[in-house]
């Protein structure tokens, strides 16, 4: 189980040097509805919870950021494909975390999806 705090339980996965890790803070009202907690690796964790009559798998992930090796990024996305592919189609999937997505220096093809901040040169507010 996770570490209990007054009305919440914190489930975490990471490494001792502190350069990666993920966590989910769950309200006590859902604790008895948790079916499974799977700590995939230092950057990915899955929590399966029964909401009503539906199984929901919450995936918390922290993708390697800019400056990390391409092999590390490829390995992360291969793992994400494996994790999501292993969840039955009858279950809902919720993915959260920091996926460190980058689209380059312009929004070609991403109009309405990616804002003007977070790529290329940014304007000061």
Keywords summarizing the entry:
disordered C terminus, 39% strand, single chain, four-stranded mixed β-sheet, 125 residues, alpha+beta, three-stranded antiparallel β-sheet, globular
Tell me what the structure shows:
With 125 residues, this protein is of the alpha+beta class. The chain has helices at 28-31, 70-85; strands at residues 3-5, 8-14, 21-27, 34-41, 44-51, 54-62, 92-98. The chain has a single domain, classed as Deoxyribonuclease I, Chain A (4-Layer Sandwich), CATH 3.60.10.10. The protein has a four-stranded mixed β-sheet with strand order 4-5-6-7, with helices on one face. A three-stranded antiparallel β-sheet has the order 1-2-3. A hairpin with a 6-residue loop joins strand 2 (8-14) and strand 3 (21-27). The longest helix has 16 residues, at 70-85. Residues 119-125 have low confidence and may be disordered.
The CATH C-level class name: Alpha Beta
Which class of secondary structure composition applies to the elements? alpha+beta
Main beta sheet: 4 strands, mixed
SSE run: EEEHEEEHE
Regarding quaternary structure, what we see is: single chain
List the helices and strands and how they pair.
Layout: E1 3-5, E2 8-14, E3 21-27, H1 28-31, E4 34-41, E5 44-51, E6 54-62, H2 70-85, E7 92-98
Parallel strand pairs: 6-7
Antiparallel strand pairs: 1-2, 2-3, 4-5, 5-6
